[in-house]
Amino acid sequence: MSRISRRFADLREHGRAGLITFLTAGDPDMATFETVLAGLPASGADLIEVGVPFSDPMADGPAIQAAGLRALKGGTKLRHILAAVARFRQIDGETPIILMGYYNPIFHFGIASFTKEAAAAGVDGLIIVDLPPEESDEFLPAATAAKLELIRLTAPTSDDARLPKVLKGAGGFVYHVAIAGITGTRSASIADVQPVVERIRRHTSLPVAIGFGIRTPDQAAATAEIADAVVVGSALVETVASNLDAEGQAGPGLVMALHTQVAALAAGVRRVARGK
Amino acid sequence: MPQSIPNSLRSGPDENGHFGAYGGRFVAETLMPLILEVEKAYNAAKVDPSFRAELDYYLEHYVGRPSPLYFAERLTQHFGGAKIYLKRDELNHTGAHKINNCIGQIILAKRMGKTRIIAETGAGQHGVATATVAALFNLPCVIYMGETDIARQAPNVFRMKLLGAEVRGVTSGTATLKDAMNEALRDWVAHVDDTFYIIGTVAGPHPYPAMVRDFQSVIGVETRAQLAKAENGRLPDTLVAAIGGGSNAMGLFHPFLDDPSVRMIGVEAAGHGVGTGMHAASLAGGEPGVLHGNRTYLLQDDDGQIIDAHSISAGLDYPGIGPEHAWLHDLKRVEYVSATDKEALEAFQLCAKLEGIIPALEPSHALAYLSRLAPRLAKDHLLVMNMCGRGDKDIFAVAAHLGVTL
User: Fold this and answer.
1) DSSP label at residue B286
2) Cβ–Cβ gap B28/A69 under 8 Å
3) What are the residue ranges spanned by the domains of chain A?
4) In chain B, which residues have their Cβ closer than 8 Å to the Cβ of A131?
5) Nearest-Cα residue of chain A relative to residue B184
6) pTM of the model
7) pLDDT tens-digit readout, A41-87
8) Is there a contact between B16 and A134 if contact means CB atoms under 8 Å apart?
9) Is A49 a catalytic residue?
10) What CATH number labels A3-270?
11) Is the peptide bond before B140 cis (omega within 30 degrees of 0)?
């Protein structure tokens, strides 16, 4: 059983949804990011998404765009991110790590070498925003061979005709984008999301995570009523932005502020009891 | 990437929008259903005689087609070689080839029941053309333009506003064309129900590269007929066009791709020189990658991050190139060369003085290459260059480069 599947089985066992955190690797610098990363599981993150910065993040709003630029300005490269994951794996063998980003840095790295090196570093899954099923034939075999799970995105626009295509070859869990829009902008109402999630569940037995627009512990709790996991990204990335000093370097309270915020979000998610 | 040569070079792309290894649909899942809807609507429209009739009506009566094919006698004498014809797409309404495509896409948007138009623009020519057709068809229109470009293309910004468009400055990334395209894609993701995105070049996710090419192919189709009439049924020997994203070049080249005697040359913008790192020559200085929904040659660093392009011409200032060009480059069917800012500026002035035509800085790159190519060709060699835009928009930038205060 993969690390991701084990984690979701464990969450079911405990009768609750999981919290997935998103932070951009190397934001504002790699050492600070690694300190934050190391403390995420203890703060309550059940799965961790590590953002791979890209110069042209077309599905991201201002907060994650800015995080990516900060990371790139600091010289973050894909190989540094893999090395950071490998170091995390020395202290945590259980928390799933999912790299999330855009296709070009991975394609440029080389499909064969990237999948091999990512798996060796201890990466469990990949979310590649601009690699839809129509284009993933060149990538999926290498990912599968390396035992990396390719996590598919669904959107409010994914209808019954489209979902089978999207979910073919899907691994790990399904990441449902709750709004038609970019990250960190607006929030969906649970009433709008619920029927879409039900539709997705008719097409797959994979766990369903919901993200985009979830910012507060209360929103996380409300989402946990209908999801197997709740993703929070922009709200965390904004905490990085608001804890930088005048030179744009990590301020003294940054690490603590993030871990406190994650703990509050985790408490929100854990308030909700779910059937096993 | 090794590729076999197909029987026809005009039948692409395949059903998934691939030209060999290039093209495709690399977009977020939220956009996929829309892209598929655009493709379905376009496939239906292009075989519908009423769509063709409406398009032809506006091309003739509104755009002013056909554009003349003009024998440039003085340029021919000056270079002393090939017989040079200029395809006068700068005489179109709005002053460039861009409107050929905008008319086609807005008629499609109307057929699809879309009520809002968005577009990206670099130099502002595509923005002006989009704002123009949006005014004509009475649809609200938002144009995304990088703040850097807004600063250097003030007249076009004012034109777009006069035409009723909202111009939204883009400050993200490097605030140029690629960032404007990112922002337009973000807008589209957030307005999937009512909005049509009019992409200005032969790039982006399938079906855009093929659709824009089809709408621009009127350039090559007219050229074939006009030259045959002027030159006893002959085909051109050489076609030359400037390339940013590549829509004017593809429009001229595509109808001739299966005529092996026709040599085709695309001229990329070399900026300060391809060796300097300050250029926009994606084929000469880039590598295959994925951006803005398609795989093509891109300017990028060793970690797959996109690098800024540089060109004196804002219309060529894009770090990618249409995927069909990438494919034709690998097949060696089309030759791709480059011209620098300095060469383009010289050609700009030469054409104004010799032909009484002030060219845009974009076709000035093609003209610059003619000064190297034409003298080496025989006097009966028929060369057609696409004069894809006029230079009114560029006089301020050129004056600044020449040290003249207006």
Assistant:
1) -
2) no
3) 3-270
4) 26
5) A58
6) 0.96
7) 999 999 999 999 999 999 999 999 999 999 999 999 999 999 999 99
8) yes
9) yes
10) 3.20.20.70
11) no
